[in-house]
Amino acid sequence: xxxxxxxxxxxxxxxxxxxxxxxxxxxxxxxxxxxxxxxxxxxxxxxxxxxxxxxxxxxxxxxxxxxxxxxxxxxxxxxxxxxxxxxxxxxxxxxxxxxxxxxxxxxxxxxxxxxxxxxxxxxxxxxxxxxxxxxx
Length: 136
Known about the structure:
The protein is an all-alpha fold. It is about 70% helix and about 0% strand.
């Protein structure tokens, strides 16, 4: 076997990853509700803002340190909105933008990202919080 294998993710992360993968599809299903209903726009808003960012950042190989948890929370919205803008721009460039096409594309990317390992977080790898505590 290869020695470059990634460590297996803990079983407790599986439901979180599954909920991230399904969040886009739930937001898409919510668009079938009557227009203007809070149950329609709240899931869509939360998914577009946080879904892709959390899917890209969360699946870490080990437990997150306190600094990494804060870093994940701070980066989830800007990263998720950046992915949403890239998807929307791509759909506009191919003249295929619609609300449904946007949500389907974003949900598919989020589902794929939740299956892959998360992006490395500097605070998770260098132990910034522990060093700051030791130097006090």
